[in-house]
Amino acid sequence: MTDTRGEAIRLDGTGPVYDQIRRAIRDLILDGSWPPGTTVPPEHALMEQLGASRMTVHRALVQLAGEGLINRRRRSGTTVASPPASHAMLDILSIPDEVRRLGQVYGYDILSRQDGRPSAELAERFAVRRARPVAHLSLLHRGSGQPHVLEERIIHLDTVPDARTERFATTPPGDWLLQNSLWSQAEHAISAVAAASADAALLGIAPGEPCLLVERRTWNQEAPVTAVRLLYPGARHRFVGRFGPYGAV
Amino acid sequence: MTDTRGEAIRLDGTGPVYDQIRRAIRDLILDGSWPPGTTVPPEHALMEQLGASRMTVHRALVQLAGEGLINRRRRSGTTVASPPASHAMLDILSIPDEVRRLGQVYGYDILSRQDGRPSAELAERFAVRRARPVAHLSLLHRGSGQPHVLEERIIHLDTVPDARTERFATTPPGDWLLQNSLWSQAEHAISAVAAASADAALLGIAPGEPCLLVERRTWNQEAPVTAVRLLYPGARHRFVGRFGPYGAV
DNA sequence: AGTATCCAATTGCATATGCAATTGGCAAGC
DNA sequence: GCTTGCCAATTGCATATGCAATTGGATACT
After folding, report:
1. Shortest CB distance from A191 goes to which of B69, B87, B212?
2. Is the shortest CB-to-strand distance from A78 to strand D under 7 Å?
């Protein structure tokens, strides 16, 4: 169990104390200072360190547990949780998982890779600025040999410097990024397009067939991390979600 | 301000008291006993009625407020909230809103309506049983005169009996159902299909063009309420969502 | 009638206190 | 070594109490 918590907890003095504590700890988790598995100090320690009553500290921790950021067990204490492997909306994040959940054998090929400043056309397609260096990759993911989805991705190399030397030989970049980079926000858009002939050939479908295009961009704080376009043969894929009138179920 | 709260609050004795209170009030709201706008008794009253301390009642109410089910204001008291008009995922629920958000003038036509037990083909398409009577509708929604989306819907008449006599002359069925029926859960699936020629003609696009197909089914508790298939011209539409590693942002 | 003022109802927040439940780890015994 | 039982650390929950902040409505005043 990781147990190094060098950073001191700093309250910002604005708003209720319990919320200051909640935000302070949340920030330590989200910025990576307390990685998953880290032991959070027990309530008594936080109480002394922060000069708040135990119930106030408790309230902050209970909220964080409710948000899924920490796990709490009696006697064992409180630890930083790992980001959940699957949400309804996050199920599409890991393509190997997606394929295996269908009971198929996963495989992938890197079709191309090129590093450097993006061309005008590439910058346009991914809505990024041309000044920053990126890695530009194309991949084909397969399920039991059959083409599953075509991926085109850029990775911002100054946000994720380790990606410069990573070859993605054993882990596709999407999963590698989940493990080797932090992200705080993602935006995705789903649309329907007709397959261009080059893409259709790779996916083994007829040109012009309808495909689902998932475009996703992720950021850490304000810095862009990666942007990806995933092209799914429409006849074989659908995205499913569940919710209730007041939000997710 | 509505203020009739006939039902007594019943605790079920299982789990923590604050959670019993939270669930009891939540259920009164979700099953319609306390419609939006109803005044929730003040903490002191609940405290006496339920035999719990004020802080315990408070904890339950604070949680419900966090879930968006109630609104609380000092001195004014606590009232049952209206279901939010828009969530990232719910933005697609009201087509008039969707159209107006694009700055267009909304309009719609009812293309057909037929009530009765569903045919085998219809039951198959919407994954419903044939035993129950439904209303079967087709509509075309327009934005500033242009076709926006083609809707095909069934409404379960024994779950929503008022729909038998409603003509949907001024409000399309999706919005009418939001106001005139309760729902606790929805499931939607998004896929890409090629436009059939009849649908293409109605949407003003070429046959075979890619379209986004949104299929949504909603239930109240276990009872099916409605099921709808929405066909969007793919070139003109995309669905956008935002989230963070621990859930919605 | 209009306006300024005050009061009281209601929620928001923090503390102090006590006991219950869980369980990791130690100690004792076999 | 293995098991059993106990202890203490830690979280979970409920209560009682007090004060702060907000504000609807009454009251007093012009």
Report:
1. B212
2. yes
